[in-house]
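Sat 14:20. Reprocessing the chain from the morning session after the first attempt stalled halfway. Input below, unchanged.
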Amino acid sequence: MLISIGLGLLFVLTLHYTIRHGDYLKIDSSIKHLIAGHSIPACSLSDEYIPGFLNISQDSEGYSFTFFKIKAAIEANPQIESVFVEYETSQIDEFAKHRIYGNYLRQNVPRHFGIMDLGPLVDYFIKNGELTEFVFVIRKTIEDNLAFIWKKDRNIPADIWDTHITPNVAFTGEVPTKDEEMVDSNSYIVFEENLTYLDSIVAFCQASNVKVYLFRSPTMEKKFKNELIFLDIAKTRYKNIPFLDFDQILLPVPAYCDIVHINVDGQRFFSKFFNSLAVDGVFDDPNYQAIIEERGKKLSEMDVSKDYILF
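Finished this time. Tokens:
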């Protein structure tokens, strides 16, 4: 039994070493900017419509995994000039623990296994505390990463990170209108572990001379209970980091598949708007937020099914 466990552990470590030290992270030299985060930015922005950008966002991803992904991508691709990281209200809530060591281990560990330090992974398994989950995740990690190694042309960004499928259905439910009662900032507990990794993302990018932007995608749900605390963190903890708050603009209801995720039509629509701002240098303008909101006023009245060329 002990021999089997030992051989299994040796195999996992060998697999990790092989991927980590392989040349599998190169992206096209024309890519200068990364977009990172969980399912909301994965749905909201398509790099197909934003030249020079690569969206490496994936569903269920916490900042711990995003940190290692961004770090690995920048180290392998010195042409990267900036990183856009989704920052939204659920990232400061206790629910964010599921994106690190809770319910989403089985999604996150296999696709980040080869570029992560092993220490944090062990820590996440310990905090998760479920033996059956550990067994399932290890088995899936081995299967998925072996399949990657056996591929003829191996590239982590293309084969592992670029796998998100944005829904093509349109929202048909009731548009949220009820104002939520704001939580008391004195009793609200910010999930610090997730934000600590966001701090690490910012610090690593700055040390690498890569500019960092925080952004929030448009949603239908405009009244979040922790909104005031969320905005205060952006203004204080990240006061020197531009925060592009696209949730202050309205998109047409047919742009969404649910109250927080954009569908395929909405993705194309919003991506082209985002690209128009990038091309015009709005993100580096001191009045970027005012410009975003002013130029975004007309979006709610546009037809997302049409393939707009310019905004």
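Residues 94 and 280 are 38 Å apart (CA to CA).
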